[in-house]
Amino acid sequence: HMEQEFDVEIKEVLSRVQKVKAESLDDAINKANPTIRKYLAERAELVGAIRLPNTAFKDNAGTEVTADILFLQKRERKIDIEPDWVHLGVTENGIAVNSYFAEHPEMMLGSMKYDTRIYGQDSRYTVCVNDDENFNIYEALNKANPVHTSSAA
Q1: Residue 145: what are its φ and ψ, rounded to 5°?
Q2: Are 135 and 54 in contact (CB under 8 A)?
Q3: 71/8 Cα distance (integer angstroms)
Q4: Which of 42, 39, 38 is nearest to 15 (CA)?
Q5: Minimal CA–CA distance to 144: which of 130, 131, 125, 123?
Q6: In the structure, what pLDDT confidence band is assigned to residue 131 with cuts at 50, 70 and 90?
Q7: Is the dihedral of CA 118, 69, 103, 41 positive or negative?
Q8: At what angle do helices 35-43 and 2-19 cross, to 10 degrees?
Q9: What average pLDDT does the segment 6-17 reach?
Q10: What are the CB-based long-range contacts (under 8 Å, 24+) for 69-76?
Q11: 85/148 Cα distance (integer angstroms)
Q12: Strand 88-90 to strand 96-98: parallel, antiparallel, or no bridges (unpaired)?
């Protein structure tokens, strides 16, 4: 019975993800409309998150894209809740991000910037960039502690 319930939950999440446009998948956590985040929050507690720089998959997949790793703990039952991370905050340089990352900038393995390379000077698309020539993603991930009990839930 538990396996069937799990399959249903996975299918439900996948069907919702498939409805999101590819170019806005990153926006599931960052976009102004909190619908997807509220849906997740009602069903899972955000334990923590790590934002990877846009070069994290460059060597393996040949792509430059910002990606987030979310640590979620499934709730026993759906609850009506709207924690802080459902909403947006801003970085020190005024870029809108999920409030979790605004409160925990150390969990972004780089800094947020507007992506002007592809979209021009007026771009509103954001990217996490790490310009440190000595940056080692493996070391950074080992140092990261995504568990912030005081404000993740």
Answers
A1: -125, 95
A2: no
A3: 20
A4: 39
A5: 130
A6: very high
A7: positive
A8: 170
A9: 56
A10: 69/146, 70/29, 70/46, 71/46, 71/47, 71/146, 71/147, 72/40, 72/44, 72/45, 72/46, 72/47, 73/44, 73/45, 73/47, 74/9, 74/43, 74/44, 75/42, 75/43, 75/44, 75/45
A11: 12
A12: antiparallel
Say if residues 125 and 115 touch (Cβ distance below 8 Å). Answer: yes
pLDDT tens for each residue of 27-70: 556 667 788 888 889 999 999 999 999 999 888 888 888 889 88
Q: What does the chain come to in residues?
A: 153
CB neighbour list of residue 59: distance below 8 Å, 6 or more residues apart: none
Return the structure tokens found at 131.
């310009």
Residue type, 54: N
Strands 111-114 and 44-52: unpaired
Report residue 114 as tokens: 């507007």
The single residue listed with the structure tokens 């310009």 is 131
